[in-house]
UniProtKB/TrEMBL annotation:
Residues 62-102 form the F-box domain. InterPro entries: F-box-like_dom_sf, F-box_dom, Kelch-typ_b-propeller, Kelch_1. It comes from Salvia splendens. It holds the Pfam family Kelch_1. The lineage of its organism: Eukaryota, Viridiplantae, Streptophyta, Embryophyta, Tracheophyta. This is F-box domain-containing protein.
Amino acid sequence: MPGPISVKRFKESDMFSDSFQLDTPTAKGGSVLVPEAVNAKTKSFLISEVDDDYHSPILPGLPDDVSKHCLALVPRSDVPVMGAVSKRWRSFVKSREFITVRKLAGMLEEWLYVLTVDAEGKESHWEVLDCFGHKRQELVPMPGPAKTGFGVVVLNGKLMVLAGYSISDGNALVSSDVYQYDSCLNSWRKLANMNVARYDFGCAEVNGMTYAVGGCGMDGESLSSVEVYDPEADKWTMIESLRRPRWGCFASGFEGKLYIMGGRSTFTIGNSRFIDVYSPDSHTWSQMKNGCVMVTAHAVLGKKLCCMEWKNQRRLAIYNPTDNSWKMVPVPVTGSSSIGFRFGSLDGKLLLFSAEEDPGYHTLLYDPNAAPGSEWQTSEIKPVGPCLCSVTIEA
């Protein structure tokens, strides 16, 4: 097993010199050389100019399994620049295997990706924070027009942004576009379009697949259609629809099943309390009652679901799908009673971010495993602006 690896910096010109080398795997303090600064133009040049023979070793003189372990030991903050070294490195870094090897090496880190908006509420950007609240990197701009009503899912350690609603030259547009962000390469790429353009829909990952459920369509009509994305084939496939249209709903995955909750239907008065449950194994839908309505924030903690309903922003509702039961937990918020929340999660703990600009608000942290009376604390993790949504990516 190789010794620990440290990242050293070097000039881009060094990539074409004989100074690029790796200490032997048994040597203590072995090192991998990576570029100090690689902008988009330079990165493109490096990828095209470096010897990129896919059949050559990842690291000359070392078996590929050892080389992969060496690359997996590089700190996460330095991983994106490795993709500029060669196509072979880039191919490995963006693969599912890279995450698997990092997990086996104990190198996985949870980072929080928060979509925030500026003070005028016009421009949004993704902010990346670690478990201490330190800003870790700048995301390259998200492609496509600014949208609302889109969905976000983390699939195989990568962020997916699905569909949504936008205004262009005074015209309303409903999108079927899907983009994927690779945190290991700090880059976006276009995936296959969804079969149905939609917004205000539910979406979630279950068993390595992404599901998109309901929402509103091109003419604002409520949808009951459901489709699933296979990342291996880069393809969306329609599956059995919901029993009734449903928009403004949300989705979560538990124990290999897809749960749909909240939202409205054209066939109901008010809000739906039904929970639609889809089993990928049997390809069938079932229903339960006792669901949440008008949910403004939700997050999965372990095998339970945390929700915040619009009608009561001072109570956390925790759902246990095993017995279809709810636990209500008071939220110890002081100050403005109108403050709304968005949820994040890190290390099995729930973070409550302010959905409005409030300099005096401190992020609340809920630890479900803490001793009674100590579940709530404040956290130093705070986005620079109001939180629109957040996801946790482990890589």
